[in-house]
Specification:
Blueprint lengths: L6 E4 L2 E4 L12 E4 L5 E4 L5 H14 L4 E5 L5 H4 L9 E5 L2 H9 L5 H10 L4 H10 L13 E3 L2 E3 L5 E4 L9 E5 L4 E5 L18 H7 L6 E4 L5 E2 H10 L1
Parallel strand pairs: 4-5, 5-6, 6-7, 11-12
Antiparallel strand pairs: 1-2, 2-3, 3-4, 8-9, 9-10, 10-11, 12-13
Helix pairs in contact: 4-5
Length: 238
C-alpha cells in the first residue's frame, strides 16, 4: 500500500487518493486549505489511516483541519474520525441515528468474524475492516456534531448539499465554487455490495443533475478526479 500523499487539484483543493485495490475499501479524502481553518472531507477508514493522512498534510505544508465533513456515514469515510481531535464534525442529519447505531455495536475482530458467519455477503466489507484496524483501543464511531437538512455553508465558503441516492440516504456533496471543484463522495454509486441487487448500477441521472458550467472538476471518493469534459462525456455516452 502506497504512503498517502496530497496532490493539488485546483485553487484551495487538495486530494489524497485512497488505496486503488478495491478489496482495501479505502476512500480518498480531500482538504480545502484555508488559513482561517481548513476543511477535511471524510475522515479516513481507520485511526491508522487518519494518522497517515495527518502526516501527509504536514508533509504537504497544509493547515490542520478545523472542520471534518462526512460525505456519508459508511465506515470507510468515518472510522478515522476518532483520531482527529479538536475538529467539528459536520454531516447530514440522517447520519446521526445511523452512526449512533453503529457506535453501539461491539466492534472487534471477533465480532466481525461472527457477523460474516451469520451473513456471508458482509464478507468483503467486514474483512476489509479487520485489515484496516490494527487496534480497537480508544476506537469510537462518532456521529456529526453539526448537522443540516438540505444545504449548509461553512464560514470559509465551502458549501454542503444533501443529495441522498441509492448508495446512502445521507449522501452529501461538497462545493468549493471559488476553486471550481465539486466533491461527490460516493453519491452516485450503487448500494453497498451486501445490499446490492443485480440491476443496481451507477446513478447517472443524479450526476447529470449535478453538472454545472462553473465547476471544472468532479471528484468521487474511489476514482481519479474528472474534468468537466470527462464527467459530461461519461454521462452522455453511458
Amino acid at each position: 500500500m502506497a504512503v498517502p500523499q496530497f496532490q493539488h487539484l485546483a485553487g484551495r483543493v487538495w486530494v489524497c487518493p485512497g488505496d486503488p485495490d478495491p478489496e482495501a475499501v479505502q476512500a480518498g479524502v480531500a482538504v480545502v486549505a484555508d488559513e482561517r481553518g481548513s476543511v477535511l472531507i471524510d475522515a479516513g477508514q481507520s485511526p491508522t489511516h487518519a494518522r497517515e493522512i495527518q502526516a501527509a498534510l504536514t508533509a504537504a505544508g497544509l493547515p490542520q483541519p478545523r472542520w471534518l465533513v462526512y460525505t456519508h456515514h459508511h465506515w470507510d469515510h468515518v472510522w478515522g474520525a476518532c483520531a482527529w481531535p479538536g475538529v467539528e464534525i459536520v454531516g447530514h442529519e440522517t447520519a446521526v441515528p445511523l452512526l449512533r447505531t453503529e457506535a453501539a455495536r461491539p466492534w472487534s475482530h471477533h465480532y466481525l468474524d461472527e457477523q460474516v458467519r451469520a451473513n456471508p455477503r458482509l464478507g468483503p466489507s467486514f474483512r476489509a475492516r479487520a485489515r484496516a484496524m490494527d487496534s480497537w483501543a480508544d476506537f469510537a464511531v462518532l456521529p456529526p456534531t453539526r448537522t443540516f437538512a438540505d444545504v449548509d455553508e461553512l464560514p470559509v465558503g465551502v458549501g454542503l448539499r444533501h443529495v441522498g441516492g441509492g448508495h446512502a440516504p445521507d449522501s452529501t456533496i461538497v462545493l468549493v465554487p471559488d476553486s471550481g471543484v465539486m466533491l461527490l463522495g460516493d453519491c452516485y454509486y450503487p448500494p453497498p455490495a451486501h445490499l446490492r441487487r443485480p440491476d443496481d448500477g451507477l446513478d447517472l441521472v443524479l450526476v447529470r443533475r449535478l453538472l454545472q458550467d462553473d465547476y471544472l472538476w468532479y471528484v468521487s471518493s474511489h476514482a481519479e478526479p474528472m474534468t468537466a469534459e470527462q464527467a459530461r462525456s461519461a454521462v452522455e455516452t453511458t
